[in-house]
Structure formats: structure tokens, C-alpha cells
Design a protein that fits this description.
Layout: H1 4-18, E1 25-27, E2 44-48, E3 51-56, E4 59-64, E5 70-73, E6 83-89, E7 92-97, E8 100-105, H2 125-133, H3 140-143, H4 155-164, H5 178-200, E9 224-228, E10 233-237
Antiparallel strand pairs: 1-6, 2-3, 3-4, 4-8, 5-7, 6-7, 9-10
Helix pairs in contact: 1-5, 4-5
The structure holds a DNA duplex (14 and 14 nucleotides).
Length: 245
DNA sequence: TGCCATGTTAAACT
DNA sequence: GAGTTTAACATGGC
């Protein structure tokens, strides 16, 4: 569920069904004031990175699925103890389980940088480049997971992008040649859309080239598995094909 | 069966 | 205080 494209899929499912609808009930154990939602009409459902945003007049419910979050539409499919938030609209409704729910006051456009959202029409590669230049001593494997720069990128996207562009995960940003840096930014977005397409087809796993893999498809040598960088997330790479600058 | 993971935050350290 | 490390959360697949 968790990476940006998966959240966009949820947005695309919920938006046509619930936008413009008025709340008739709220359930769940999220630590939020449920009275806030009373009789409110959904203004918009959007996604920014890994955040699902349900906008109401004056506030927004932010759903973050973390590692184990899930949801269902129109019927509750999980036990009450894992039900964080259910928004009910007459007979219809959406149920969110084991996720983080936060109320954001005001207009999300005031605090979300849509130009940093990998899947947004407003994605701004030049801005991403500028943000990368500001963290020269960071490893690229950490930079790719930085939501301030690549909102929506997760560990799968990280591993696949680095494999695609043949860049060693522990390369420091300042050492990446300009063309390679451009490729990094381009592929982060490209792969996000491939992820989206394959996720919709339920064939995402099948298309993994590096993530969880044991052997390099290109040179047939074993891939390294390492908890790399400050983020210490699983990193799969080929020391033969992925260049360290 | 136990381990581990598509994630993040806050507390506890140095 | 900054930077880091650790713990906590909590479900499902292998």
C-alpha cells in the first residue's frame, strides 16, 4: 500500500465516489475530534506523496498508511480495534485501518509543495535538482527517500531507480555527474508512473529488477543486500553495474 | 513459527 | 543543541 503511486490509486478510487458528498457519520479510534466532520461536505480528495488528503471546508483529514495501513469501501472488513477512521455517507462509506490520521487546519496548498510531488502535473525537476544540490554530502539512497525532495518515493522506487540508471546507492550527491543527476530525477518520476501502471495491473512485483532480487539481470553476478545510508533501509544493488562516483 | 517489511515519529543517547 | 540511534506502532506474508 504505502508508496506514492499506491496512494494515488486510492485517491482515484475514492474521489469520484465521495467528493461532494455530505458526511452522515464517523467511526473509529483515531485520536481526532469526530464532531469536526459532522454534516461536512467533502470538497476534494487528493494525494501528495504518501499522504491521502480528504478536504473539508476549513480543514483536511490526512491519512498516512505507514507500513501496514489498509482501507475498504462501503463495508467494514477488519476488526473494530484496527478501525482508525470511517467516514460514512448514508449507505456508503470509506474505512481506514491501522493508519495515521491527522487533522490539518486550513488550506493544504499553503503547506504542501506540489512541485515536489513525483506524480503531480506540477512536478518540477529543476526544483528537485536545486534541493539535491543543497545536500551535497548525502548519499543518493537517502536522498531518494527524502519526501521533501521526492514526495511519494519509497524503498522499492529507490532500489529500482538506482538500478535502472546504474548508480551505486552510496554515491554522494556532490559526486554524481550532471547527466547522471538528471537521469536520477527523470527516472524517479518515470518509474513512479511505471509503478502506478503495474500496481493497477497487479503485476508490480513481477517487474522488479533489483528489489528483493538475488542476481543482477545484466551481468548475472549476485546483488548486494545492504541496509545502506542513514535511512538504513534494505538496498539491493550490483557493485559491477552500478557505478560509484 | 518467527522474522521481516512498500514508513514515520519521538524518545533516548552521544 | 545537533546529530545519531533506538523504540514504538502494528499487520500479513513467507
Amino acid at each position: 500500500m504505502p508508496e506514492g503511486p499506491s496512494i494515488l490509486i486510492i485517491k482515484e478510487i475514492l474521489d469520484p465516489v465521495f467528493t461532494g458528498k455530505r458526511i452522515t457519520g464517523v467511526k473509529g479510534n483515531a485520536k481526532v475530534d469526530k464532531d469536526l466532520f459532522r454534516n461536512k461536505k467533502v470538497e476534494a480528495i487528493r494525494s501528495w506523496g504518501k499522504h491521502l488528503l480528504i478536504q473539508f471546508p476549513g480543514f483536511t483529514a490526512r491519512i498516512h498508511f505507514l507500513l501496514f495501513g489498509s482501507y475498504s469501501v462501503n463495508e467494514q472488513t477488519k476488526p473494530a480495534k484496527s478501525l482508525r477512521l470511517a467516514l460514512l455517507f448514508g449507505k456508503k462509506g470509506v474505512y481506514f485501518y491501522t493508519c495515521s490520521v491527522k487533522i490539518l487546519e486550513g488550506d493544504p496548498d499553503d503547506f504542501y509543495d506540489w512541485e515536489g510531488n513525483l506524480l503531480s502535473k506540477k512536478w518540477n525537476p529543476a526544483k528537485a535538482r536545486k534541493k539535491l544540490k543543497a545536500i551535497p554530502s548525502a548519499m543518493v539512497c537517502d536522498a531518494l527517500l527524502n519526501q521533501e525532495i521526492f514526495a511519494g518515493a519509497g524503498n522499492i522506487i529507490k532500489n529500482e531507480v538506482l538500478y535502472r540508471i546504474r548508480l551505486h546507492p552510496e554515491t554522494l550527491i556532490k559526486n554524481i555527474p550532471p547527466r547522471k543527476l538528471a537521469a536520477l530525477i527523470t527516472e524517479a518520476r518515470n518509474y513512479s508512473f511505471d509503478f502506478l501502471k503495474w500496481k493497477k495491473e497487479l503485476t508490480l512485483k513481477k517487474h522488479w529488477l533489483a528489489h528483493t532480487k538475488k542476481t543482477c539481470l545484466r551481468c548475472k553476478l549476485p546483488l548486494v543486500k545492504k541496509y545502506a545510508g542513514k535511512t538504513k533501509r534494505r538496498t539491493f544493488f550490483c557493485t559491477n553495474c552500478q557505478v560509484k562516483y
